[in-house]
Amino acid sequence: MTVDQIAELLKAFGCPPEKTPEMAKQLDKRARQLSELKGRTYDEALVHLLNLMRQGAQGTTDSN
Predict the structure, then answer these.
(1) Using CB atoms within 10 A of its CB, is residue 47 exposed (0-12), middle (13-18) or buried (19+)?
(2) Tens digit of pLDDT for each residue in 10-45?
């Protein structure tokens, strides 16, 4: 997934459009870090982070 695609998802979650490019870059970087640290694939790490962002945008939390 590209940073631009991540930014589009963030917009769909309701993130302010002017902040999505930087947020997408940060999520991409963190997903790469998590994939190395946790032995996950990049995709698994990114899905995890995007789910957290979606939950935050919806005002929900999940302790898992």
Answers:
(1) middle
(2) 999 888 999 999 999 999 999 999 999 999 999 999
Give the DSSP per-residue string, 6-62. HHHHHHHTT--TTTHHHHHHHHHHHHHHHHHHH---HHHHHHHHHHHHHHHHHT---
- Structural domains of the chain, count: 1
**In the predicted model, is pLDDT for residue 63 greater than 70?**
no
Domain that holds residue 31: 3-57
Q: How many CB atoms lie within 10 A of CB 4?
A: 10
Q: Match 């998590």 to its residue by tokens.
A: 34
Please give the single-letter amino acid code of residue 33.
Q
What end-to-end distance do the CA atoms of the chain give, in Å?
Answer: 24
User: Is residue 63 assigned to a domain?
Assistant: no
